[in-house]
Small ribosomal subunit protein bS21 (Pinibacter aurantiacus), 64 residues
Amino acid sequence: MLIIDSKDCENIDKALKKYKKKFEKAKTLLQLRERQTFTKPSVKRRTQVLKAIYKQQVATGKFD
């Protein structure tokens, strides 16, 4: 649960902005989407390997 400390004189827009930042940093929405469908561990591992290969190719300049 996210808790936002708001002062009496603080604007509601600022408090909402703080809440959105905390919500994004907590990655609650990403966790919710991951839990909606089950992905096999082998599929997760394969996607991680493919991402690593892609990042390595971009870093070396082989991928355009």
